[in-house]
Amino acid sequence: MQSLKIIANGMRFLAFWAIPGFYLLGASAVVSGQWENSLGLLLAATALLIVYVIWLLRLKGERYIKVKAFWERPLALLMLLFSFPLLLLTGLLIKLESPGPALYFQERIGMNSRRRERRCCSASGNPPPLRSERRHVDRRGRDFGGRPFIICKLRSMTADAECCIGAAWSSGDNDPRVTKIGYYIRKTHLDELPQLCNVLRGDMSLIGPRPERPDFITQLSTVVDGYRDRLVVPPGITGLSQVRKEQDQSVDDVVEKLRNDREYIDNVCFSLDVKIALNTVLLMGNLFWSAVRRRTIEKIEPKTPDIIFADNPRSDR
Q1: What distance in Å separates the CA atoms of residue 267 and residue 251, rounded to the nearest whole number?
Q2: Which residues contact residue 146 at a Cβ distance below 8 angstroms, ignoring those fewer than 6 apart?
Q3: CA-derived radius of gyration, the chain
Q4: What does each C-alpha distance from 202 to 72, 243, 264 come to in angstroms?
Q5: What pTM was estimated for this model as a whole?
Q6: Domain ranges, ordered by start, for the chain
Q7: Residues 201-236: pLDDT tens digits?
């Protein structure tokens, strides 16, 4: 029975990847003047797309999370192809403005799949696999509650931004470490576009709670109860917290975002993801317009987590 489900999901995945191909073939047939062939291809692609949307709308919760990649990865590939010229231009401007690489790589913590593995193993009566348990623990034996992976971003700060103070929360528009080009790509979140590669690799989703750095997770877990609850779903490029609130400036902001992440986890479904994606597009347009209209001059030094947590008492759920 389990093998039949795997085969069925594999066929759905392959069929969904075929939808963009049908549309491309139909468009090429229209350009070449073969209207009869193009009409059949476009109708087949549209019918297949409608069937997929209806199927996705019926899924909720963990069932939907298992198949999110069916539509997210093809869409991420198309977004990466269409945004590639913009990425090249932005990377060139970053290199011209300041020394250092155009891309920035950083370790983040992804989804915690151990809960699902333990539930499956307890149902079958088998012990949990040790290999999957070790994936969530780094070489120094620290368990962050999720699987570490490397995230990719366009560099928006100077190359030596953390050489003196180490890991620190950004102070937003006022951060002196942010370059001129970096201000605009951070403001509009264009620096997140390379993370489409993480979606294709399976490290992330398009929609979900933002992945956090290991050190921040360790410290936030001590002051915010239930902070690691957000690791039960794959992290995303955008999410419910991102469309409702800007960057974290205090522990209270973290608590508010955690509430939003829990709301997303409790109600995750295809329609909610579509709503978040549309709100993200509108938000990026508004942020781009505000970035063009004005640029903050006054600078505020960023704070390290130790300073922020020392000024905030322990926060409850």
Answers
A1: 25
A2: 109, 110, 111, 112, 136, 217, 228, 231
A3: 22
A4: 10, 23, 20
A5: 0.75
A6: 1-58, 68-111+146-310
A7: 989 999 999 998 888 888 888 888 888 888 889 999
